[in-house]
What does this fold into?
Amino acid sequence: MDRQSLIKKFDKQAKKYNNRRKNGQAYKFRQRIFQEANGQVLEVGIGSGLNFPFYRSDIHLTGLDFSPAMLKTAQNAAKDYPFKTTFIQADVESVEFNENSFDTILSSGSLCAYQEPVSVLNNFKKWCKPEGKILLMEHGISTNKPFAWLQNFLNPLALKVVGCHQNRDISEIVKKSELKPIREERYLAGYLYLIWAKP
It folds into this structure.
């Protein structure tokens, strides 16, 4: 799928994502991992700002997204929170940051849409300070075999309709990257991955 088509798909979902900020199914999982973000924080695929409720007031957040509608929604939502923000409309697969720029880099539900997810994670390593942290909350292939079969079956349709893969093995993607996994937790029949990593 070309990038412009993918951007349009996410533009159309901005309002739906915004409604999930305070009552989404993944709220407690976001809280579990993203409250650990500190310092200079980069959130890629920031979407509508679903993680804003969990950020400390003293961070400086750089929010990145290729969808202008998502980014506008996040900018409006950020007005209700005390932390400093910078927003950048760009594709994480082509954007450049200086090495060692961030204390925390996080991603939630974005690895499903990248053409080269391992390369993206390798960039996280480059952009993150050596003593920093990388926090991931991603969806991928389930540990439940019937559910995994369904994910594989529906993947072509999901890719066409919403622009993301349903059956990626997030654990393997992280292992293939240059990141150092520290801890992994799986929830919702293994469909939801929480991963703490170091650069």
In short: DSSP finds seven helices and seven strands in the chain. Residues 145-161 form the longest helix (17 residues). The first strand starts at residue 40 and ends at 44. The CA atoms of residues 45 and 65 lie 5 Å apart.
